[in-house]
Design a protein that fits this description.
binds pyridoxal-5'-phosphate; alpha/beta; 21 strands; Lyase, Ornithine Decarboxylase, Chain A, domain 1; 364 residues; 2 domains
Length: 364
Amino acid sequence: MEPVELQERAWIEVDLSALEANLRLLQKMAKGEVIPVLKADAYGHGALPLARFLEGKGVGRFAVATLAEGRALREGGVKGEVLLLGSLHPLEAEAALRWGLTPTLSTLEAAQALAARARALGLTPRAHLKVDTGMNRVGFPWEKAKDALLAVEALGIRVEGVYTHLATAGEDEAFVEVQRSRFQRVREALGEGYFYHLENSHGLLLHGGENVRVGLALYGLIPGFSLKPILRLLARPTLVKQLGPGDRVGYGGEYVARGGEWLLTLPVGYADGLPRGAVRFVKGPEGGLYPVAGRISMDQTTVLSPGPLPLEAVLEVLSPDFGPTGLCAWAEARGTIPYEVAVHLSRRFPRVYRYGEEVWEVLN
Ligand SMILES: *Cc1c(COP(=O)(O)O)cnc(C)c1O
C-alpha cells in the first residue's frame, strides 16, 4: 500500500485495516472473547486511536497496565470495560473507582482498600481476580483461589472476571499445560458466573483458547500465522550528498567512504526507537534496500543510496512486514523481543491512522 504523504520530514503510519484483519483472524481462532491489550500505548502503536477504532468495530473490553493508561482512554471517550492488568495497589483504589476502571486484585489489602473507598464514594466496587498458576508474579495462589474469592466477595466487591497468565507460551509448552490444567481446576472450584480468561498471543496461536488477552498478535508482530504488522515509519532525507574517498561518516567515523557513494541523512535515530547497531537497512522509494552507513545517532541516521534523491523523497525506515526492515528483524539483530522494540517507538512523530485509502485520524 502506498504511504500517505504528510508535509513532514518523518512520521508514523498505522494501518487500521490490517489491525482489523488481525483482530478478525484472532477472533476466529478464539472460542470466546478477544480482549485487546493496549498497555504501553498499545505497544507503541497509540492506545487511544486504536481503542476508539476497535470500539467502533464492536470490541467492548480492553486491558491496560496502569491507571494513567486507563484514565487516558476514559478521557478520550472510550466507553467499554477497561481492565487494569497487574495487581492493584491499595493507594490506587480511589482513582480506579473514580475513572470507572476495573482493577485486578491479587492481594486482600487491595481488596479491602477498594471496598473501603467504594463505600466512601457510594460506588459499587467491581474487579477481576488474578490467580497465580505458576508465574509467581501476581495473583492469589491457585490452590487458594476459592478462599480468596469468598474473602473478596465478603467485602462486597463484585468479582466479574477471574484470570491467570501464562509464563512460558511459545517456550515451554509442557508448563503451559500445567498452568492450563491448574486454571481448569480453579474454574471448577469457583463455578460458572465469572468471566474466565487465560491465553496471551502465543498461548492462543499455539494452543487455541476461549477468552484471551492479546497484544503482540494484534499488532501483527508474530510471523507465520497470516498476521500482518500494522505500523511503518517513514522519513525524508534532510541532506543528500556524495562522499569523497576517505570521508568518514558519523560518530567514531566508523564508515569510511571509497568515494562516490551517495549519502542520505534521515531525521530519525535511537531516541525514536531505532535500536542502535540493529537497524541495517532502510527501504528506498522504489523498494530497494539502502544500507545504514556509520552509527545511528540519537536523532539522525545516515544511509547509502544508489544515486541522488530529492529531499521530498520518502523512505521506509520501518516496514509493516517481516523482512530486513521490519520490527522483528530489528529485535532479532538486537538480541531482544519485538515487545521491547515496539514499546520504544517514538511518541515524537506525527502519526497517521489510515483505514484502507482513507485517512482516519492524524495526531500531530
Ligand atoms: C501483556 C499481557 C498480555 C498480552 O500479551 P501478548 O503476549 O502481547 O499477547 C496478556 N495478559 C497479561 C496479564 C499481560 O500483562
